[in-house]
């Protein structure tokens, strides 16, 4: 018998997904869908999926069936090996509910003609295409490359190998950041398409862009430029502080101070030094402006502590701080052991062999998800033997809605970045998201810049406005009984309530899950915490920078053979946010079918382990650390950013095979390099990468980024100019996708902020409007939803219950 939690943990049971691609983006999308219960079939080429040769390999012995990366990304799927034009594969595609297409070289394994043929016979088919730029606004083939997307999407112009040292170089995030965000966007928009399909019985096409996906998550880089005209650059200020790596007697700590009250606690913890009372450090803006001076004082004080002493004090004083974890630290961490966060994955071609891997990044009804099924052996299944039963064609249950989540109401109790980002995705899909704020404690990001036109104000923050688009804003005094009563009333009418407070905070407010269920038996209650609702770290402060440090992201990034790196942006927040949105929509999908509510838990840390698993995979497979490669890559060479003519001008180049390298050699004016034993194969090029990069730099340094990129693209070599944020705003491809829509804010007027990474052929799934001003919709929402009269609303304002 299937338990209630098991049914909710597999909301996509029976959904047939054909993964036709060889990219990380396709693999991670399939990984998430399999974790939601879908039946995912991987179509592999005859030579096998690239991850079979990528490693790391169990006990460091190269073997296609012992690759940790393949095992993790494809555990629980089935493997079919056949040419795309094989009749059995064509028939398999015709039986699928969902087709995912994403290839490194841009050649579709399941072509448009066959897709059109299947759509004519089965209008319920949903096709998900993932590529560097998407299929809208870009002609020709549609390859998928993470480095080029990071260049075109703006990240490489901001992220740096060093925040303080000389010669900062553009740095990608190891772990293919744009690919995993695009994969998450693909799954989230697919869930929206499945909601719509329940109404109309019709599928649609989803076009996902890696460039757009990464441009949508660059902290405040986009809003800073658009709101103030300032161009974000590498080694720029972080807006809050002190924030960074600080040496202690026996190790390094990562600390981030965001609010004034946290800074005051830090000063008290350090014994009230004289500098702590200086006027220039009294405000967030002052600490930002004088960050270099403050940093010197903080460093001098922390050098007197051991790492353990400082971390213990920081926890006592509620200061956000963490050690810098490597792979072995993660595997040995008692917190993960207590939560069962690293279940084993069995290798498909090696009976009895397994390795630890990140588990599903969500939990239902508080239960630990079971281990995944084993990874498939290469081509173990015959295409004609799969999905042999009848396919259910959704008949549709009503008139199609313009937006998939139309009619769904969400009570949003989130704050800062990760939580608001999650709830904003629900608004993008059409839900009525009611953002509940309290007038007694201002939302943190309303007090952080960039501010529109440089004017400070609670409604002028680009940080808040970027990540709360399309919501309605209600301001209640939740310290009053009447304020809590109004919140309970909103929850009683909602489909979803979502928060990202500390573990147990909602219960301490008088709203544990049992009470939420009493208020509304059909509620989907979603809680995102930093480290989960159990385990020794459950009550620790969690900012994205701390997740970088603890999850191994910081230690696996940096100059070649360098690291760890103090990353300029805390990008665990949007990853945790979009992962939580996926879990929420999936739970809602099942709850709508069953009529029952459910409790969903996500942890920022586990969401990032799932998306960026390399430290766990290397530690588990080899016992060692992740090799720090800079911008290099195991599957391509040369692969990196190269200096061009001018100041801080760069071009990204990703040469993926021998044919591309031969073409590169011709462009360099040295075709003989293709026959040079140092460069004749990928393995040889990687051994001699220093020499190879010097040759490429000698050529690129005489050209502008645009000239270099055009010359290489003309010969079929992957290349993109490293775009600054202003250039991203002017991207013709993003313009064609409508990526910067105009929305009208109640206080600051018309603005253009980033949209989403996907386009849908049938449903509107993007920003519905601007972020709300503080309390902008309080009267509207309480009157419309709770039926309060104008006189009652006036009284609430007089009594200080509402704003």
- Going by helix content, strand content and strand pairing, the class is alpha/beta
The total beta strand count reads: 24
Approximate strand percentage: 5-15%
- Total helix count? 33
Give the CA-based shape.
globular
Give the termini distance in whole angstroms: 50 Å
Q: What is the topology, as strand order, of the major beta sheet?
A: 3-2-1-4-5-6-24
What is the helix fraction of residues, given as a range? Answer: 25-40%
Radius of gyration: 26 Å
Question: Which spans of ≥5 residues are poorly predicted at pLDDT below 50?
Answer: none
Mean pLDDT score? 93
Please, what is the oligomeric state? Answer: single chain
Largest sheet: 7 strands, mixed
Question: What would a concise description of this structure say?
Answer:
The protein has about 800 residues and is an alpha/beta fold. The protein is built from 33 helices and 24 strands. The strands form six sheets. Strands 3-2-1-4-5-6-24 form a seven-stranded mixed sheet. Strands 12-18-17-16-13-14-15 form a seven-stranded mixed sheet, with helices on both faces. Strands 7-8-9 form a three-stranded antiparallel sheet, with helices on both faces.
């Amino acid at each position: 018998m299937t338990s209630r939690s098991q049914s909710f943990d597999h909301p996509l049971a029976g959904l047939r997904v054909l993964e036709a691609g060889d990219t990380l983006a396709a693999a991670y999308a399939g990984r998430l869908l399999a974790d939601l219960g879908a039946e995912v079939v991987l179509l592999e080429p005859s030579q096998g999926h690239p991850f079979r040769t990528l490693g790391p390999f169990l006990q460091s012995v190269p073997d296609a069936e012992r690759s940790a990366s393949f095992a993790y990304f494809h555990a629980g799927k089935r493997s079919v090996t056949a040419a795309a034009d094989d009749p059995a594969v064509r028939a398999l595609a015709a039986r699928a509910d969902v087709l995912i297409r994403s290839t490194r070289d841009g050649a579709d394994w399941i072509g448009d003609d066959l897709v059109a043929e299947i759509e004519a016979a089965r209008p319920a088919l949903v096709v998900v295409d993932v590529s560097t730029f998407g299929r809208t606004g870009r002609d020709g083939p549609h390859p998928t490359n993470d480095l080029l997307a990071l260049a075109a999407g703006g990240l490489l112009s901001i992220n740096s190998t060093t925040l303080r040292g000389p010669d900062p170089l553009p740095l990608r995030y190891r772990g293919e950041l744009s690919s995993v965000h695009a994969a998450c966007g693909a799954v989230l928009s697919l869930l929206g398409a499945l909601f719509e399909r329940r109404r109309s019985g019709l599928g649609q096409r989803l076009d996902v862009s890696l460039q757009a996906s990464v441009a949508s998550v660059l902290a405040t880089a986009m809003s800073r430029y658009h709101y103030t005209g300032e161009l974000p650059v590498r080694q720029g200020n972080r807006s809050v502080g002190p924030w960074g790596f600080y040496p202690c007697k026996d190790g390094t700590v990562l600390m981030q101070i965001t609010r004034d009250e946290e800074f005051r606690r830090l000063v008290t913890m350090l014994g009230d030094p004289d500098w702590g009372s200086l006027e220039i450090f009294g405000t967030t803006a002052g600490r930002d402006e004088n960050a270099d001076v403050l940093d010197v004082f903080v460093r001098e004080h922390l050098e007197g502590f051991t790492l353990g002493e400082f971390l213990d004090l920081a926890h006592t004083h509620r200061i956000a701080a963490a050690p810098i974890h490597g792979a072995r630290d993660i595997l040995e961490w008692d917190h993960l052991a207590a939560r069962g966060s690293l279940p084993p994955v069995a290798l498909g071609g090696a009976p009895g062999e397994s390795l630890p891997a990140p588990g599903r990044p969500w939990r239902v009804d508080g239960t630990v998800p079971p281990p995944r099924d084993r990874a498939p052996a290469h081509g173990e299944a015959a295409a004609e033997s799969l999905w042999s039963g009848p396919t259910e064609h959704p008949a549709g249950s009503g008139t199609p809605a313009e937006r998939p989540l139309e009619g769904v109401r969400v009570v949003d109790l989130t704050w800062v970045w990760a939580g608001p980002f999650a709830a904003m995705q629900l608004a993008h899909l059409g839900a009525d998201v009611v953002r509940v704020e309290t007038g007694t404690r201002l939302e943190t990001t309303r007090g952080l810049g960039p501010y529109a036109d440089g004017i400070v104000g609670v409604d002028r923050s680009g940080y808040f406005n970027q990540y709360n688009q399309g919501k309605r804003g209600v301001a209640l005094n939740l310290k009053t009984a009447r304020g809590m009563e109004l919140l309970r009333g909103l929850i009683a009418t909602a489909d979803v309530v979502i928060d990202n407070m500390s573990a147990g905070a909602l219960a301490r407010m008088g709203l544990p899950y049992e009470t939420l269920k009493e208020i509304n038996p059909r509620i989907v209650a979603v809680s995102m915490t930093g480290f989960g609702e159990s385990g020794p770290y459950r009550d620790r402060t969690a900012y994205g920078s701390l997740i970088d440090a603890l999850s191994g992201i910081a230690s696996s990034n940096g100059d070649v053979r360098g690291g760890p790196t103090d990353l300029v942006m805390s990008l665990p927040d949007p990853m945790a946010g979009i992962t939580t949105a996926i879990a929420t929509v999936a739970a809602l999908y099942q709850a709508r079918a069953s009529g029952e509510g459910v409790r969903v838990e996500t942890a920022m840390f586990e969401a990032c382990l799932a998306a960026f698993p390399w430290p766990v995979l290397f530690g588990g497979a080899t016992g060692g650390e992740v090799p720090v490669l800079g911008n290099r890559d195991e599957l391509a060479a040369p692969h990196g950013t190269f200096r061009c003519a001018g100041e801080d001008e760069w071009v990204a180049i990703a040469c993926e095979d021998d044919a591309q390298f031969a073409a590169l050699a011709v462009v360099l004016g040295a075709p003989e390099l293709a026959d040079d034993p140092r460069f004749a194969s990928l393995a040889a090029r990687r051994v001699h990468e220093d020499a190879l990069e010097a040759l490429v730099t000698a050529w690129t340094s005489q050209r502008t980024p645009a000239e270099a990129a055009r010359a290489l693209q003309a010969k079929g070599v992957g290349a993109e100019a490293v775009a600054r944020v202003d250039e991203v705003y002017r991207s013709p491809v993003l313009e064609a996708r409508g990526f910067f829509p105009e929305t009208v804010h109640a206080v600051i007027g018309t603005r253009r902020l980033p949209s989403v990474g996907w386009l849908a052929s049938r449903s509107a799934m993007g920003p519905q409007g601007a972020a709300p001003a503080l309390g902008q919709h309080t009267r509207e929402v309480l009157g419309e939803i709770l039926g309060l009269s104008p006189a009652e609303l006036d009284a609430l304002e007089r009594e200080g219950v509402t704003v």
